[in-house]
Design goal:
Blueprint lengths: L28 H21 L5 H17 L1 H15 L4 H5 L1 H7 L11 E5 L7 H4 L12 H22 L9 H10 L7 E2 L6 E2 L12 E6 L2 E6 L1 E2 L9 E2 L2 H20 L7 H5 L3 H14 L1 H12 L3 E4 L25 H14 L15 E4 L5 E5 L7 H12 L26 E2 L6 H19 L1 E8 L4 H6 L5 H17 L5 E6 L8 E5 L3 H11 L5 H23 L12 E5 L6 E5 L8 E7 L4 E8 L7 H20 L14
Parallel strand pairs: 4-8, 8-9, 13-15, 15-17
Antiparallel strand pairs: 1-10, 1-16, 2-3, 4-5, 5-11, 6-7, 9-10, 12-18, 13-14, 17-18
Helix pairs in contact: 1-2, 7-9, 7-14, 11-12, 17-18, 17-20, 18-19
Length: 655
């Protein structure tokens, strides 16, 4: 059959109207108070167990306080909250409280304490010699394949960004699309600015200036701005992303400049290490730098406005045993296999080590990191968006390995019609005085203490994953993992603690994050049944079934913002990310010195846990907690298999 040659144009399709995004509701005061009282129940039971006030007396007293609050100052504050919501452009929480209270008012250094880290799997297209950092053309500590993978990752990341902007991916015809595009817009062309008492976020440039079309590249603690987009060809057109080969050529040219500077004995002003210091100290030092010389102000502005950052490390980090001058107690010492050592070394390299802590600009929302062996990952300042968002961007960047066909010589030719006259890179040198030199030395000493005190490791549990949990265990995977973490905490501490789990409120306009209080009375009851001798297996299984029901309900209510973000001392900070097929692991720092920061990647056949605590605290041990997690997961398995009410079914997964 011949094809039709008709030239009749097809009728234009009507553009779909973006769905309505409702405003985040203001929770009713009485429901807020009732949820607060319910969240106190397991903690009041713990207080009674330790010899404090009886549970009933403690709960009655809190109910009295809640009732008085409801008819007194609470009513006034609730009315004010309603008025604030009506005056807020998007919602009462994110416009007024969350960003400042959860992030910007915190004065602790961003290094480990706030910034997240994510380790990528190796690129299978890299030659075996590249994975060992062995190439014949090393320059300034970098390697050929390091720069190639870095250029490819930058290009893939920005290709994804451009497809979002053009709505080729995640269009605003769905609520998820609206949420994701709004969230990713905060990853690029912005950074955190240190201020006394409360930081601020920079405003992205309104026009595609040179700095807005550049990435920030750091090597040997020096800073460079590298344009990766051509200027727009017309006022109404977007900038044009350069090819991977063009980006690579610019990186290689930059490396030659660094090599020349090293040969001349030049030393950088390590402004990156200052950005990893206490926020008030960094604010003071930045003010001094900006007043010291006009070029410092320009360098800082370019770093803020750059699309994203790329840190090219010139060293390959490997974990070594503790130095004899600072021995660790036995329960803190990790006896790592070679595979575990390689895994943790990779995570530590992304998190920050003594070899690279100055080669980062910690205020930047998104930083790609590549070392000479082509190990790669990403890290970012947490306040603009939660780690789930950059992890989705990162998955796009790494799911396709380096395409060698994109690095042929013809790919370096500039497209027709573009302005290719801009310099390949610009030095962002800082002018310092004696005070800043001393502050850099002191800041490095404080940063070293932070990373040396970070007891950080990854656990790969591969006995079963979400498929088994759903089909054989008949549990929600997230609720199951959270109950396991409660059991592991109790096994290592002999008590319970308030637990934080992040929940997205993405169904609402500019929705961000809510708090799920994982520790409930039912969760506590299940843990105690599991550790108490003589309790039947049936009773032990029924207890977690009861425990996950309130967890599932609370998570649903948090996502629909029927669970207010009430404060607590979250010694167990947790967050589930994704299946994490392309990630070796991830992590963030413990919120308190005697607690843990735990990020987990739950896949159909495996669960990966990133666990961080502090060596300096006698009550914590990442090694011990990892063992407790494995023990808890293995204890749950036979209980689920003994469940007489559930017929085992073939393992399936929607993932």
């Amino acid at each position: 059959m011949s094809r039709s040659t008709s030239t009749t144009a097809a009728p234009p399709q009507a553009k779909l109207k973006p769905p309505h995004m409702p405003r985040l509701p203001v929770p009713p005061l009485r429901k807020t108070l009732d949820k607060y009282l319910a969240s106190l129940e397991p903690l009041l039971l713990e207080d009674e167990k330790r010899g404090g006030m009886s549970y009933q007396s403690g709960l009655s007293l809190r109910k009295k306080w809640a009732d008085e609050f409801e008819v007194g100052i609470g009513k006034v504050l609730q009315d004010r909250l309603g008025a604030l919501d009506r005056a807020s452009p998007n919602n009462w929480l994110d416009d007024n409280f969350w960003l400042n209270k959860a992030y910007l008012e915190w004065r602790a250094p961003l290094l480990v304490n706030s910034n997240w880290w994510l380790a990528f799997f190796e690129d299978d297209t890299m030659p075996a010699t590249a994975l060992k950092g062995e190439t014949n053309n090393n320059r300034a500590g970098t390697t050929f394949w390091q720069l190639r993978r870095a250029a490819w990752l930058v290009w893939r990341t920005l290709e994804f960004k451009d497809k979002l902007n053009s709505q080729e991916l995640h269009p605003d015809t769905t609520r998820t699309g609206i949420w994701f595009r709004n969230s990713t817009s905060k990853m690029f062309n912005m950074a955190r600015i240190p201020e006394p008492f409360c930081d601020t976020l920079s405003t992205p440039p309104e026009t595609p200036t040179r700095e807005a079309r550049s990435i920030l590249v750091m090597l040997h603690d020096w800073c460079y701005a590298v344009p990766v987009y051509y200027p727009p060809t017309s006022p109404d057109s977007p900038p044009i992303l350069m090819s991977p080969k063009q980006i690579e050529a610019r990186l290689r040219s930059l490396v030659l400049d660094v090599e020349d500077r090293l040969a001349r004995g030049e030393k950088p002003v390590p402004v990156g290490i200052l950005s990893g210091d206490d926020r008030d100290k960094w604010a003071s030092n930045l003010d001094h730098l900006l007043a010291l010389h006009p070029s410092n102000r320009r360098s800082h502005q370019v770093m803020l406005n750059s699309v994203m950052a790329l840190s090219l490390d010139h060293t390959t980090f490997s974990i070594t045993p503790p130095h004899p001058s600072r021995p660790l107690p036995p329960h803190k010492v990790h006896h790592r296999s070679s595979a575990q050592s390689a895994l943790d070394s990779h995570l530590h390299m992304i998190r920050g080590t003594e070899l690279n802590i100055g080669n980062r600009f910690y205020d930047k929302a998104y930083t790609l990191i590549v070392d000479p062996s082509t190990r790669a990952g990403a890290s970012g300042e947490h306040s603009p968006c939660d780690a789930l968002v950059p992890s989705i961007v990162a998955e796009y960047a790494i799911v396709q390995g380096v395409e060698l066909s994109e690095f042929t010589e013809d790919k370096v030719i500039h497209p027709q019609g573009v302005d290719a006259s801009e310099a390949a890179w610009e030095r962002l040198d800082w002018v310092a005085d004696e005070r800043i030199q001393k502050e850099c030395t002191a800041a490095r000493g404080r940063a070293l203490k932070i990373v040396e005190n970070s007891d950080d490791s990854v656990l790969w549990f591969d006995d079963y994953g979400t498929d088994w949990i759903k089909t054989i265990g008949n549990f929600s995977p997230d609720a199951y993992v959270q109950m396991v973490l409660q059991l592991a905490w109790y096994k290592t501490r002999g008590e319970f603690t308030a637990t934080y789990e992040t929940v997205l409120t993405r169904m609402f306009k500019n929705g961000r994050t809510e708090t799920l209080r994982t520790l409930t009375r039912d969760a506590r009851d299940w843990v105690l049944r599991l550790v108490t001798p003589g309790v039947s297996d049936r009773a032990r299984l029924k207890a977690p079934q009861r425990a996950v029901q309130p967890h599932t309900r609370l998570k649903r209510e948090a996502a629909s913002d029927r669970s207010p973000p009430l404060g607590a001392k979250w010694k167990l900070g947790t967050s589930g990310l994704s299946a994490g097929y392309l990630f070796k692991g991830t992590g963030f720092g413990a919120m308190y010195e005697d607690g843990y920061g735990i990020n987990y990647l739950a896949a159909p056949k495996m669960i990966k846990f990133g666990i961080e605590s502090k060596f300096s605290n006698a009550n914590t041990s990442t090694k011990k907690f990892k063992n407790a997690v494995v023990e808890s997961l293995m204890e749950m398995k036979p209980l689920c298999l003994k469940n007489e009410d559930v017929e085992p079914r073939p393992i399936t997964s929607h993932l």
